[in-house]
Amino acid sequence: MNARNVNSELLQSIVVYKYDHATKKTTTVSKSGYLHFPAENELPLEHFCIPIDPILALGYFRKNCYYIPLLLTQETGSRLYGASLIHRKESEDFMSYGVFSYSPVYTLFYELLMDMFLTQRDYCIEAREYISALPVFPVQEDERVRLSVELYTRTVVVQTYPLTDLHIIDTPINNLLNHISFSETVKLLKSLLFEQRVIIVSDDVSLLTPLLNTLCSMLNPFSWKHVLIPVLPNLEQYHTFLNAPLPYLIGVSSLPLSQVLDPDIVIFDLNKRSFINVSAQPEFPSELFSHLRRAVKLIIPRWFDECNSRKFAVEPSLRVSARIRLAFFHFLIEILTRCPKIMDPTLSQSFFYRKTGFTIREKCEFIKVFSNTQLFQTYQTESESTLSHCIVKEGIHIIKERSGALNSMKAIFGMSDVLAETLTTFERTFLNFFIEKSTILSSEPRSETLASGE
Fold first, then answer.
1. What is the pTM of this model?
2. N or C: which end of the chain has fewer CB within 10 A?
3. Which H or E run contains 324?
């Protein structure tokens, strides 16, 4: 992959649009011409991209504007990433600016939209020049690409990696830390691992897209390929989606009053910080979960505060974010390597579970259910597609060669040498992945590196 190809893929998919709420007129500018959002169609743009009603229900606009990250899934299954910024004009009418792309560069979206708002320039006229002005830099050995963005108010440099991985980078874990406790996060992740239907309710719709994106990214090395609708329009014709008989993760501003939802749907009310409905779930293996809990508590103990008003006075750093993701990654890898289908399909199950320390109850209630999910089966078929998959496979191979069975959780958390070399390589890549490439940098190069040991 060269820089020209990466930039071409990113820039040619960018669409900038302007929407006038009074006239309901949408103006779009597209460099490539293959992304269009007409004003009049079966699913009007404002329903999914500019949910004005729940915003007005909050009774205020933050700093005279309201920023909403967005994600849309097309009929083909491909996803569009974007953001909208809504503000009041002098006439008290609303105007929205928005941007969409096939690449999830949310940091770039935010910088662009805030610049549009601060300068009040008509970007639908100047968007072509803006998009065309993004230069191409040589690619580093690790295929990192740097984009220099000339905004009217300042110049920023965005470092990116291959576009398929950006959804993790531009999805800060702070969304979880500030709004959902550790135990609530675990329940939601467990529901996703078991491919249940999950609804998250929040009257602040700006929280839904980053929160749902973060939950999906926490499933690494697995990926959520089912229905994902971060903001479902609060209109009656869309409420039938909530009883669809397939796994989904959907965000809503409020639950429909006119429709009875199926009892097995997991519903989490972010406003009240409570589960309205949660079906019975097999428990995580107790030993592995205790390791995860201890590891996360050492990193950021305040996340275990169940208080509804909990907020972090200082946002956790990207390094802390990366370590939390690593803890969950290690935890899911341990679960993955406990599955006989991954270790050795010919291995006797009784021998396998005796060697790995699982009880019969844990085997039946968790591993058996999880290993039959589409999430797990898709991982098996795509196990060569990403860095994390390759690292997992290499780690399992080392374990099988050296011990013939799995070691304890200590191996995954770096307390034994069984996976030391493999995990050291991965952690260095993983931490740099989060620390360096998602940060909006000044024109000066970043001095902090993982190698410095800071």
1. 0.64
2. C
3. helix 318-337
